[in-house]
Amino acid sequence: MMLVALEIIAISINMFYAPHGVAAGGATGIAILVQEVFSVSVGLTTLIVNALMLGLAIWLLDKETTKRILLGSLLLPVFLAITPQIMIVEDRLLAIIVGSIIFAVGVSINFRIDASSGGTTVPPMILKKYLHIKPAIGLFAIDLIVCLFNIPVSGIEAFILAVFSIGLTSIVMNYVETGFDRKKVIYVMSNRTLPQIEADILKETDHGLTIHQVLGGYSGEPKEMLMVIVEHGHFRELVNRIHRIDPVAFVLVTEAAEVHGGNIN
Fold this sequence. Notes:
By secondary structure, the protein is of the alpha+beta class. It has 2 domains: 2-178, no CATH class; 183-256, Alpha-Beta Plaits, CATH 3.30.70. The chain contains 11 helices and 4 strands. The chain has a 4-stranded antiparallel beta sheet with strand order 2-3-1-4.
């Protein structure tokens, strides 16, 4: 799976980003900038950057983290070297949209198997360990700096496309990592009509429910709270049904990224 993920990443770089000279952060982004200016291959520059980052990891991070990023750091440059760099899509915006989606799929597969392609993911780990800066903030800052270099190298349009790519990649990764089959979790409390709401849900709908025994924070009295998991398409209908029975019922709706087992129809 890691080899598949790395090849997917290599395809996104060599067939979508690099041919259009757009560097959307990371070690591969640095490599694209170097290729644009000095005509050095993306694979070679990525290998150099990853080697430097591995050195920092060995020096400043623990052995387990270094082991986790070692294989990906060395293999990604190989995949970049053997994957042909060709322009599949001539339209620059379309190329970055497709490239972002492909790149997000590759990185997400790596995340799901707890692997990494190394590179500029190392500095955020170091910042977290020594300065207690959140990795997401550190990675965003580094990617933004790389993106800014698009302006002198490839122009303002490349910079805008690079920033757009980072945002799109983040959205796609979120869905790939947690799945597309998302559900809504509805929590319901009512001081007067909870048994009626419960009976209505069980009798008039196909939704199952769970009853939680809770304690009122203000009153200190024991209460019941219903939890219902529904498909997105049934969410509004159920909330309206609850409010028809009790217009002032407390209803809390959250997103469930993954649901396994049980009857949620």
